[in-house]
Specification:
6-stranded mixed barrel; 22 helices; Rossmann fold; 48% helix; binds magnesium ion; alpha/beta; 6-stranded mixed β-sheet; single chain; binds adenosine-5'-triphosphate
Length: 667
C-alpha cells in the first residue's frame, strides 16, 4: 500500500481545515504496523483512507500497484470485501443477528455458498475460543468476546489486510491482551495488520511504529526487539486443529474457488436482505403496524368500494331484466328537439304494431296508450293512471299477477270491459277486500270488471309513485275512453338470439317504410342497461379515486417510516458497507422492507375488505350482495407493491448513497 502526498481536508464552515498534510508512506505485505499519536492527530482519518472507506482530497494511493482514485463506490466495496478486514473500537456488530451470522455477513456479499459460509463462520469463532457462543447475539456477549467476533468477521473473506482502529480501546487489560495476541498470530500467519492505538506499550509489540502529529508523520521506525518467537503461542493457536489453521491462516484465496454463480449469489443477497427486513419489522412491531394502517385502509376501501359498486350494479341490472329482457319500445312522435315535433303527434297505429308482430324475430308485441281518469269504487274516488295494453303485456314487461288472470286475444278483439289493477289501486280502492276479483270500478263513467291484480312492483325503475294504475285492453280504451285510432307506443319483445340493435334498426326501417317518415322514436332496454352500467361504473371510479388518495397518503406514511428506519440504522449501513456491501445491496434491503410492509398491509387490507363485505351481506337485504372481482384484488395487490417501490425508493437510495465513514460514526 503506497501513499504519496496524501492530503485530507474537511469543510469547516466557509473554509476547509487540513487534517492530513501530505502523508508519504509505504506498507508492505505481511507487516505489522502500529499507528500512534495524540487524539485528533488524524490516525483514524488515515486509517479510513487506507481501508478505502474514505477518499483523500489529494495525493496518490496505490494498492497492489493500482490507483484507487478512479474506482467508483462499488469497486471500492469490492476491494474492501476481498482484501480488507476491519476491526473497530466499538465492535460495530449487528445487534439483531447472532455471532455466527455477524461473522458471515461479508461472505454474503462475496457470494459464498450458504453451507460453506456457516461452516467457515463457526470454524473461525471456534478458533477464537467462541465455539460455544455461535448463537449468542452481541448483547449476550462480553466486550472481549464481541471484539473476537469482529476479528472473525474481518477474517471471513480472507482478510489479507486487517485494519484495527483502537481494537483494545474498550477492553479490560486481560481481553485487550488476548485480542492483541490474536492479531500477532494473524500477522505471523501472513496477514498484514495495521493497528491504531494511543497506548505505547501496545505499539511496542508491533514490528513497525508510525507516529502521527497534527497530520504529519513525525516518526517511522522498526522495533529492534520485535521477534516473532518472542510471542508465546496465541490463545487461538493453542486450540487450533489442522483444519482450523487452514480456515483462518489463509489470507486471500478463500473466495476464489468457493464463489457462487452470479444468479445464486444475487438470490443469496436478496434472501439476506429479506431476512434483515423481517428482523427489522419484528423489532418494531407497533411502528410497522401503524405504517401499514394507511395501506390497509386504502386497499380495504378500494376493494370493498369496487365490490359494493359491482353488487349494486348487479342488483340494478337484475331489476332491469325483470322489465323483460331484450325489449324495444316504439314511441309515437318525432324525437325531442326535432322541429316537426308537435304536442300530440298521432302517427302510430295498431296496424304498425301488428306489422312488427308479424316479423319472425319478434316474440310478442303489446300496443299501449295512456291517460289519466277519475276512478270510483262506491264512496272512494281517486285519480288514476289508465293504460290500454295488448294481450302480450305481462309477457313483454315481465310483470306478474298476484290474483286472477290477464287479457287474452278475445279480450282485445271483443273489446271486453275487463281490467287489471296494480297493487296501488288495490290498496286505494279495496283496502278491506282481500279478493277484489269480480268487483266493478267506474273509470270515468265506464264500468270495468276486475279480472286480475298485479304483484307489488319492486322494480326500482318503473313508476315508483303510489298512483293507482289500471290496465284495460287497448281496443276498449280506444273505443270507450279516449276515442281515436292511434296508440302512444308499443313494446316489442324480441327473440333472445337476435341482437337488440339489429332488431331495433329493422323495426325502425319497417315503420319508416309504412309511414314514409321517421315520426317515431325507439328505445331499447339494452341502452338503459348500458346507461346504468356506465353510471355505476362512474360512481365506482369516483369512490375509488378517493380510496386511491388514501392509498397515496398511506404510501407517504411508508416513506416517512422508511426514512426513520434508515436514520436509525445508519450505523448498520456503515458496517455493511465496510464489510463490502454494494450500494445496490443496501438499496435492495430497504426496498424489500418497504415492499414487504406494503404487501403485508395490502393483504390485511383485502382481508378487512372481506370482513366488511361479510358484514354488509349479513345486514343488507337478500337481493344485495357485495361482489368481489379478482381484478380489483389483483389491482390492489399490484398497487400496494408499487407503493412500496415508489415510496421506498427515496429512503433506500438515501441509504445506499451514504458515505461509509459518516454512517459508521453515527449512532
Ligand atoms: N468528517 C469530519 N469533518 C470534519 N472534521 C473531521 C471529520 N473527521 C475528523 N475530523 C477532524 O480530523 C481530526 C482528526 O480526527 P481523527 O479521528 O483522525 O483523530 P484520531 O487521531 O483518530 O483521534 P483519536 O485518537 O481521538 O481517535 C480531528 O480534529 C477531527 O475533528
Ligand atoms: Mg480515532
Amino acid at each position: 500500500m503506497q501513499l504519496s502526498g496524501i492530503i485530507r481536508e474537511f469543510p469547516a464552515g466557509e473554509q476547509t481545515i487540513r487534517i492530513l498534510h501530505g502523508i508519504d508512506l509505504t506498507i508492505y505485505q505481511g507487516e505489522m504496523v502500529a499507528i500512534i499519536g495524540q487524539s485528533g492527530s488524524g490516525k483514524s482519518t488515515l486509517m479510513n483512507i487506507l481501508g478505502c472507506l474514505d477518499k483523500a482530497t489529494a495525493g496518490e494511493y496505490l494498492i497492489f500497484g493500482k490507483s484507487v482514485k478512479q474506482l467508483d463506490a462499488d469497486e471500492l466495496a469490492k476491494l474492501r470485501r476481498e482484501h480488507f478486514g476491519f476491526i473497530f473500537q466499538r465492535y460495530h456488530l449487528l445487534g439483531d443477528i447472532d455471532a455466527r451470522d455477524n461473522v458471515a455477513v461479508p461472505a454474503v456479499y462475496a457470494g459464498m455458498d450458504n453451507k460453506l459460509r456457516a461452516q467457515r463462520a463457526e470454524q473461525l469463532l471456534t478458533d477464537l475460543g467462541l465455539g460455544d457462543k455461535v448463537h449468542n447475539r452481541p448483547s449476550q456477549l462480553s466486550g472481549g468476546q464481541q471484539q473476537r467476533v469482529s476479528v472473525a468477521r474481518a477474517l471471513m473473506n480472507g482478510g489479507d489486510v486487517i485494519l484495527a482502529d483502537e481494537p483494545t480501546g474498550a477492553l479490560d487489560s486481560k481481553s485487550g491482551k488476548d485480542v492483541l495476541q490474536i492479531l500477532n498470530n494473524l500477522n505471523k500467519q501472513g496477514h498484514t495488520v495495521i493497528m491504531v492505538t494511543h497506548d505505547p506499550s501496545i505499539a511496542d509489540q508491533a514490528e513497525r511504529v508510525i507516529e502521527l502529529k497534527d497530520g504529519h508523520i513525525i516518526a517511522d521506525y522498526r522495533n529492534e526487539h520485535f521477534n516473532h518467537s518472542d510471542h508465546t503461542q496465541a490463545l487461538a493457536n493453542e486450540e487450533t486443529t489442522e483444519e482450523a489453521t487452514a480456515a483462518s491462516a489463509s489470507p486471500s484465496k478463500v473466495l476464489r474457488h468457493k464463489q457462487k454463480s452470479r444468479l445464486g449469489s444475487l438470490i443469496d443477497r436478496l434472501s439476506e436482505a429479506f431476512r434483515m427486513s423481517i428482523l427489522a419489522m419484528r423489532a418494531h412491531k407497533m411502528r410497522t403496524l401503524l405504517t401499514m394502517l394507511g395501506i390497509i385502509i386504502g386497499i380495504a376501501s378500494v376493494v370493498s368500494v369496487v365490490g359494493i359498486g359491482q353488487g349494486s350494479q348487479q342488483q340494478i341490472l337484475s331489476n332491469i331484466s325483470s322489465l323483460g329482457t331484450n325489449t324495444i319500445t316504439v314511441i309515437d312522435g318525432y324525437p325531442y328537439g326535432d322541429p316537426r315535433r308537435q304536442y300530440n303527434d298521432d302517427n302510430l297505429t295498431p296496424d304498425d304494431a301488428q306489422a312488427v308482430a308479424d316479423q319472425p324475430y319478434v316474440v310478442s308485441v303489446s300496443p299501449q296508450l295512456d291517460t289519466n281518469a277519475s276512478v270510483r269504487y262506491r264512496s272512494v274516488q281517486e285519480s288514476a293512471s289508465i293504460s290500454g295494453v295488448g294481450s302480450g303485456y305481462l309477457e313483454v314487461t315481465g310483470e306478474k299477477l298476484a290474483q286472477g288472470q290477464g287479457f287474452d286475444e278475445q279480450s282485445i278483439s271483443l273489446r271486453t270491459q275487463d281490467i287489471i289493477i296494480d297493487d296501488n289501486a288495490k290498496t286505494t280502492f279495496f283496502p278491506d277486500i282481500t279478493n277484489p276479483i269480480g268487483e266493478v270500478l267506474l273509470i270515468g263513467n265506464v264500468p270495468g270488471l276486475v279480472i286480475g291484480v298485479l304483484e307489488p312492483n319492486e322494480n326500482a325503475f318503473s313508476r315508483s309513485s303510489d298512483t293507482p294504475t289500471i290496465y284495460m285492453p287497448y281496443t276498449t280504451m280506444m273505443s270507450r275512453i279516449v276515442g281515436g285510432e292511434n296508440i302512444d307506443r308499443f313494446v316489442v319483445l324480441i327473440d333472445n338470439q337476435i341482437s337488440t340493435s339489429a332488431a331495433e334498426s329493422a323495426i325502425s326501417e319497417l315503420i319508416e317504410g309504412r309511414h314514409g317518415a321517421d315520426d317515431f322514436r325507439t328505445q331499447n332496454s339494452d341502452s338503459i342497461r348500458q346507461t346504468i352500467e356506465s353510471t355505476t361504473n362512474t360512481m365506482t371510479l369516483l369512490i375509488s379515486s378517493i380510496a386511491i388518495i388514501s392509498l397515496v397518503v398511506g404510501g407517504i406514511g411508508v416513506m416517512n417510516i422508511m426514512l426513520v428506519s434508515v436514520t436509525e440504522r445508519t450505523n448498520e449501513i456503515g458496517v455493511r458497507m465496510a464489510v463490502g456491501a454494494r450500494q445496490s445491496d443496501i438499496m435492495q434491503q430497504f426496498l424489500i422492507e418497504a415492499v414487504l410492509v406494503c404487501i403485508l398491509g395490502g393483504g390485511l387490507g383485502i382481508l378487512l375488505a372481506f370482513l366488511i363485505g361479510e358484514g354488509i351481506n349479513s345486514l343488507g337485504s337478500d337481493s344485495f350482495s357485495v361482489i368481489y372481482s379478482p381484478t380489483s384484488i389483483i389491482a390492489a395487490f399490484i398497487c400496494s407493491t408499487l407503493i412500496g417501490i415508489v415510496f421506498g425508493f427515496l429512503p433506500a437510495r438515501n441509504a445506499a448513497k451514504l458515505n461509509p465513514v459518516e454512517a459508521l460514526s453515527r449512532d
